[in-house]
Amino acid sequence: MTDNTSLSRRSSQRRARSAGRAIQLALLILVAALALSACTDPTPGTEPTNTTQTVDPTKTKTASRTAIPDELVGEWNGGPDPGEFWLTLTNDGRYQLSNARYGYSDSGVVALDQSSMKFTSEITGREQTRRWTLQTSPDLYGSKFSILSLDGYSYVKEA
Q: Does any domain span residue 78?
């Protein structure tokens, strides 16, 4: 009887360890799927994926762009993970968005009006429109900062 009880106990322990490993694996898969789904929208203000696809310029329409006002030109730092994204806007209506942590880089043209910016990627051809606002901080220890909000995500640069 002792041998059967001992065997039964060991068998139960093996099943419990196996079930524990299955739960750990399921949780790992769930976390990986959530992380991947968070990286599907490569535009300012969202988590990107590492995109290597290029678009044939002869098969795409020409995106419109507008001159960028001086107060928006420059390198902005922020996004959904503060300090993780760099957004560069140039006065001729171009943008570059990068994130070293995710190995992500995108560039293209931007057209704006008083309340929205339309980013058109030269890599994917994808267009994304974002609401934007601009604020300037009060003088803090001799420095002022501009705060660009794109659909609620903040980007900062020294004014």
A: yes
Mention every residue, 6+ apart, whose C-beta is less than 8 A from residue 104. Answer: 42, 48, 49, 50, 51, 97, 98
For residue 120, what is the enclosing H or E element?
A: strand 116-121
What is the gyration radius of the CA atoms in the chain, in angstroms? 24
This prediction's pTM:
0.60
pLDDT, one tens digit per residue, over 101-122 is 999 999 999 999 999 999 999 9
From first CA to last CA, the distance across the chain in angstroms is 82
Domain contains 115? yes
Residue 46 resides in a domain: no
- Identify the domain containing residue 18 by its residue range: 1-37
Task: Domain count for the chain, please give it.
Answer: 2
Whether residues 95 and 137 fall in one domain: yes
Q: Quick one: tokens of 90? A: 């140039």
125's CB contacts (< 8 A; 6+ apart) are 55, 60
